[in-house]
Write a structure and sequence with these properties.
three-stranded antiparallel β-sheet; two-stranded antiparallel sheet; single chain; 5 strands; binds zinc ion
Length: 237
């Protein structure tokens, strides 16, 4: 079985050249064209419809994330926990491991998706321009570097997600404590205007500090950080 993206690989390939091109095999290209069309349902219970390649969330490189996100998250969580406890021994006597594992899993998933999406966009762009393979490889390496593999990007991402996990754990611990009345946002030095506007806002534990009407994964903000690189704090009372 082939899929739609396989035809896209050859769709814009040059039709002429010194040696025979993919277009020299009309039956094969016709087959790919036809086989690439989405198949209508109903789908057997063990299968899912072939995803639409124009869907923004694609591709999912590994169908079942539990195979890799959970083990990766489990591997990362002791380091996150140590880092959290080392940074703030007085704030949080007991960190909830499940929060850390979930957050670490989401972080691993987001980084992986961002890399996959970036590579996919680049390959599609390169194919449509008929770039030569060496140029594509070089440009792709640079792109991956900018989007995911460089120290400052990873540092900001890990720091942001570590803080997100920390404050999520703090809220959970506060809710379990039973006697905590609420929470307050504390702006960081030199923060952005959006964060400054939240300063000293005092809310009940479940209320969000901010809700982005545009939606998205981080639209509801129940605790810092508000954005990547945000260094704001939260206090409970
Ligand atoms: Zn902030």
């Amino acid at each position: 079985m082939t899929n739609r993206r396989m035809y896209e690989l050859i769709e814009n390939a040059p039709k002429t050249g010194k040696s025979p091109t993919i277009w020299a095999w009309p039956q094969l290209t016709e087959y790919l064209k036809t086989a690439a069309q989405p198949v209508a349902g109903p789908w057997p219970p063990h299968q899912e419809p072939r995803p639409d390649p124009t869907d923004e969330d694609l591709p999912v490189a590994v169908p079942d994330q539990n195979h890799w996100v959970k083990p990766l998250a489990n591997a990362v969580s002791p380091y996150l926990t140590t880092a959290m406890l080392r940074g703030r021994p007085n704030h949080l006597p007991s960190m909830d491991q499940s929060v850390v594992v979930d957050e670490a899993g989401l972080l691993a998933d987001r980084i992986a998706r961002s890399v996959v999406r970036s590579v996919r966009e680049h390959v599609e762009g390169a194919l449509s321009l008929n770039m030569n393979p060496d140029a594509v490889k070089g440009a792709m390496a640079i792109r991956i570097w900018h989007r995911a593999a460089n120290k400052s990007y990873l540092k900001t991402t890990v720091q942001t997600e570590l803080r997100r996990a920390y404050f999520a754990g703090m809220l959970l611990a506060a809710a379990r404590h039973g006697r905590v009345k609420g929470k307050a946002w504390l702006k960081s030095e030199g923060c952005c205007q959006k964060c400054a506007d939240l300063h000293d806002r005092r809310l009940s534990l479940p209320s969000p500090f901010f809700v982005d009407p545009a939606g998205g994964d981080f639209a509801v903000v129940p605790h810092p950080p508000l954005h990547p690189g945000c260094l704001c704090e939260m206090e409970i009372f």
